Amino acid sequence: MQRFSLCTSTNNTLTYPSLLFSSIRNHISQGSHKCALLLYKQTSREGLYDPSVVPLLFKACVSLSILHHVKALHAESVKAGSHCDVFIGTALVGTYSKCGLLGDSRKVFDTMPDRNVVTWNAMIGGYLRAGDKESVSSMFEAMPGKTPVSWSQMIDGFARNGDTAAARRLFNKVLDEAKNVVTWTVMVDGYARNGDMEAAREIFEQMPMRNCFVWSSMICGYCKKGSVEEAGVIFERVPERNVEIWNSMIAGHVQNGFGEKALQLFEEMNGEGFEPDEFTVVSVLSACSQLGLLDAGKEIHNMIKKRGMRLSPFVVSGLVDMYAKCGDLANARLVFEASESIEKNIICWNAMISGFAINGKFHEVLECFGRLEESNIKPDSITCLIVLSACAHGGLVNEALEVAAKMERYGIEIGIRHYGCIVDLLGRAGRLKKAYDLIMRMPMKPNEAVFGALLGACRIHSDVQMAEQVMKLIGASTVSSSDSLNVLLFKNFFVDNGNDIPEDNERYARRVESFDEEATDVDQQALLPSVRDPKLWMVKCMIGRERETAVCLMQKYIDKGAELQIRSAIALDHLKNYIYVEADKEAHAIKGLRNIYGASKITLVPIREMTDVLSVESKAIDLARDTWVRMKIGTYKGDLAKVVDVDNVRQRVTVKLIPRIDLQALANKLEGREVVKKKAFVPPPRFLNVDEARELHIRVEHRRDAYGERFDAIGGMMFKDGFLYKTVSIKSINALNVKPTLNELENFRKPGESGDSDVASLSTLFANRKKGHFMKGDAVIVVKGDLNKLKGWVEKVDEDNVHIRPELKGLPKTLAVNERELCKYFEPGNHVKVVTGAQEGATGMVVKVEQHVLILLSNQQKNIDMEMSSLQIRVFADDFVESSEVTTGITKIGDYELRDLVLLDNMDFGVIIRVESEAFQVLKGTADRPEVALVKLREIKCKIEKKINAQDNAMNTVSVKDVVRVVEGPCHGKSGPVEHIYRGFLFIYDRHHLEHAGFICARACSCLVVGGSRSSGDRNGDAYSRFRGLRTPPRIPQSPRRFSRGGPPID
């Protein structure tokens, strides 16, 4: 074997062994594997060889996936006679196994004269990576002198392959004295990696001592499962934090979409004096891209420069991704091109290609992909997916097909997502037959995205025949999740084209009714805007003038109307320096932006991002403890639940509800027995009986939450007092207008609980009251607070308070009480009407009062032989108003129903106030005195449905739904909303008017408007008058830089 000797060279070639070793080691440690191999190649030409360098060179070859260099180094080692060296042999065993050549690895292992524990571990590790459990088990049994490292490697290997049961068996075999902190850590990490956090927590709590890795594993495991709050609990328990633990916490929040919290943690980390590394930087940059915080991303970039941090490929890809997603493509490209000294890996290239794609630069995507091909880096499946997606949205059919052909040349398997992009591309281009043929030739079964893409294309091109073929193909396929979404597309397609759904496809249409789950991103692909929809353009404007620019466009549209050819203008609060304009063509957007100072640089928004920009979010729900809600999805859809805890930061809520659990099926599942699924079977709501569960051998554990509350835990579900406690997303509950029925509240009451506790909790129902619930004269009772059980009458209603005149003497004349502390009050003998809830419209007499529940003797039954109980209705007192109206149970005859405005044969007119078996009672349009006529069906000429306005006593315009007060005539002082207007007469509904079903007829000139219309845009007839302050001058549109006469514009 050739040995080094001290020598020099005239051409300054490195020849000193120590210097050679040091240089190669430095290159490899810095990630410059290619430079290390080039340096060794230069020295090998001079016949120099050092066996200590070979293991490091093997590591460089593995990172670059250069197999021929591995074999060349192996040959040199054999030639030099050093292949028998245990260190080089061990390195060869590990290198071949990492390259997937287990046969060559085993040959080297078998021919080695000497082996140590590391050699055995290297061979076992190769089998573990390949998933060969039989070979690895036999080799481990034959291994002499097993060490804790060997046991840890086996446990970790089986866990990584998903076999946590085998890993646990190995863990249990390790003697207690041989278990070190690493053994415990790999077992915890194995459970956490596979999502079994309960088992991971069990092992974690048993550990005699813990290191930073196990803390990090627990945090990562909880974050991966979406339980960020549990990760926070673990994080707070860490005795000594390091950078790795901070990185786990920051990355976990980013992965779960909590970018703001991640940035807050980053600030805390800096405040505690920790120096961020490249993993920290990548996570924080990802948070900036999530939130669109370009300025924050630039600050991170400046910090990297100031601290002299090494720009690794991961940092470069993070910077490129951040700049691209924030819309600053110039800086993204600058970072990518300026990092020539760094060996860009495929992740960097993918980030740059994706940046071009999400900014609509489809030709630049192909150009960058061509540059990647010219380099020595091989594209991967993600690269091809990005390019195919860009071609699909850019309409580049031929280019996409070329990329698909190159995938076979590169040895990249074409997956289902690649096929989905190609089908989508062919469909949008109108090549539906080719797209269909491609689906038929696919080596795997099509999924919902593939079918949805073709159905969406059929809808775009109005190809009914192809749509029917696709639906038949879906029916023959075993795809389960495609049914609802794609059938919905199918139905919409036929409705849009004015066709009836074919009879043989009715069975698909029925499936839509059961669709209630949130669609995934893949499912939404078929619902993206098409080429026929208006496009979205991103327009650069002056910073701080985004809203003014958008308002300026709105003003121009008001003045010019359809001539502007712009659909909408959007200014987002979090996006500075840009607005969005919706228009069919770029020329339309440019024309609309003329004469608006500061608007320039127009860019097309990719189709995939349009839905994010134009998405409409519902108003934030203000939830509080004890609020009644209903579940929106899943087994408990429609069930009543009560809020226990609210986490507004993470948008999660904990509710308690009555369980729907089949204990026998649960017992079978927990014991591993096969459970026969009953079609569409939902267990009835029933309180959990812990003793009954134990009789079925169901394991019931006792646990405490973060507040110390004790719960019964069964299979990951938490129970207390028979209720199920669930933590769900706020989006999965409905808190608007939730009105529990009496039966629901009685069922919700715990067994043996009295009804007294319901009285205070009734106030949680009052949050859904409509405005104007209380009116002057209402009898009320205070249900909570210091004035509890005080009765009185409403005198005045403010925004949140109700002023009542108390019944007791000695108190002030009026008291202000919060409306949530009041409930209506009635006494036996009162005649009332139900105005809200399931019994709405029912009338009758109060026969009994049970706290805040009235028992009503209904008027809707005429058969006096029926039992008294069948005539009684139990309703909350808050849902009644006092009324003299009597209902018969009939509300409609023919085409006419209660409260309709009708014209009679004698040209009289009036409102139907009562429907009897064969006739109507009609309140006629007379002003002197109320006149009610009994009218038969044949005497009605027609229904009056015209929207007519009138003028009140002050010459104000009166419209339907305006609130008016009668100032003249026999009904002086009455007030209420206008229901109908005809021939100068107003039909006003006053629920305190005990006659004529609450209707009053008065002349418009005898009334005065006291409340605005809820339907008309403007009282004086100008639909755009509410924008009067936003109007532009007739010739020159106002510019964001042009100040109005009153001073500078107000943001």
UniProtKB/TrEMBL annotation:
* Name of the featured protein: KOW domain-containing protein
Q: What is its main location?
A: nucleus
Cross-referenced SUPFAM superfamilies: TPR-like, Translation proteins SH3-like domain
| Family as reported in the entry's similarity comment | Belongs to the SPT5 family. Belongs to the PPR family. PCMP-H subfamily.
Q: Which GO terms describe its molecular function?
A: mRNA binding
A Pfam family (short name) is KOWx_SPT5
Keyword Lyase (UniProt): no
User: Subcellular location, in the record's words?
Assistant: Nucleus
All copies of the NusG-like N-terminal domain together span 533-617
| PANTHER family, A to Z | SUPPRESSOR OF TY 5, TRANSCRIPTION ELONGATION FACTOR SPT5
